[in-house]
Specification:
The protein has 298 residues and is α/β, with parallel strands linked by helices. The chain contains 12 helices and 8 strands. Strands 1-2-3-4-5-6-7-8 form an 8-stranded parallel β-barrel, surrounded by 7 helices.
Length: 298
């Protein structure tokens, strides 16, 4: 997998031998150990995720929604993703780093798919890529895997297909669609992906799929039976201006805390309370300075 980027010694120590690799996840499933996944989009959030004990960091194309202000993920490009994946990679040394392949980075043809997947590893420092969809992209998946690039699959609600799904976000409510998703999950395992995200499907369907697969399932809005869970960082920290999804639990209200801090800063600047002596610097050989001193001879 290559050497992980080094962090300063101030990072809470997670021993090098405990680094997470793509081979670690099936081992965790067999051991009954839940897999913790979170999204991140920059170096500070990556470092926080690692210090907290997260197993896998996903740089999702959700960066378009939660960081860049787009209405959906379709506007996110390869260059955008490479920029953010690189920033996250510089903040990690233990976590497995997975990069989302954005819209039209793999769908058009096999050569483009392999080239773009490889860029995430070669240029940005990712360890694996995530691809939405199943057997419709058999040729791309087989070629990417044959090139030695690990792939995480993604079934259920796939945000890059939002215009196909319309208003219905939960997939697999009907028995017919549940059967299709079950078959697609089997394909994802058969083709060689090391794990599979199951997004927004009934918990019972996710349970059956999880029990049928040897590779681990990572749930988001798919109930408690998956082998692991992933949440968008901004959703779980309450750092969002949108109404939360039903499946997203908020553990903090970061938006409120940040707003309070900024309000305090505004007040202190306007009232003269910041900066103080504690935030100022002194000169070496003068104390009270006048313009005459500065304008005088050298």
């Amino acid at each position: 997998m290559g050497e992980r980027p080094r962090l300063s010694e101030s990072v809470v120590g997670m021993a090098e031998e405990k680094a997470i690799y793509v081979t670690s996840l099936p081992q965790m499933k067999r051991a009954g150990q839940k897999i913790v996944v979170v999204t991140a989009y920059d170096t500070p959030s990556a470092r926080c995720a690692e210090e907290a004990g997260v197993d896998v960091v996903l740089v999702g194309d959700s960066v378009g929604n939660v960081v860049l202000g787009y209405a959906n993920t379709l506007a996110v490009t390869m260059e955008t993703m490479l920029h953010h994946v690189g920033a996250v990679a510089r903040g990690l040394r233990r976590c497995l780093l997975v990069a989302d392949m954005p819209f039209l980075s793999y769908q058009t043809d096999v050569a483009t798919a392999v080239r773009n997947a490889g860029r995430f590893l070669q240029e940005a420092g990712a360890h694996a890529v995530k691809i939405e969809g199943g057997s419709a992209f058999r040729a791309q998946l087989e070629a990417i895997l044959a090139a030695g690039i690990p792939v995480m699959g993604h079934l259920g609600y796939t945000p890059q297909s939002l215009h196909v799904f319309g208003a219905e976000r939960v997939r697999g409510r009907s028995l017919q669609e549940a059967r299709r998703l079950y078959r697609e999950a089997g394909f994802i395992e058969e083709v060689g992906c090391f794990s599979l995200v199951l997004e927004c499907m009934p918990a019972e369907l996710a349970r059956v799929i999880t029990e049928a697969l040897a590779i681990p399932s990572i749930g988001i809005g798919s109930g408690p039976h998956c082998d692991g869970q992933v949440l968008v960082l901004h959703d779980l920290l309450g750092w969002s201006f949108e109404a939360p999804f039903k499946h997203a639990k908020q553990y903090l209200n970061l938006r409120e805390a940040i707003t309070r801090g900024l309000q305090d800063y505004c007040r202190e600047v306007r009232e003269g309370g910041f900066p103080t002596e504690a935030h100022s610097f002194r000169a070496h050989d003068y104390e009270h300075l006048t313009r005459e001193q500065l304008e005088g001879p050298e």
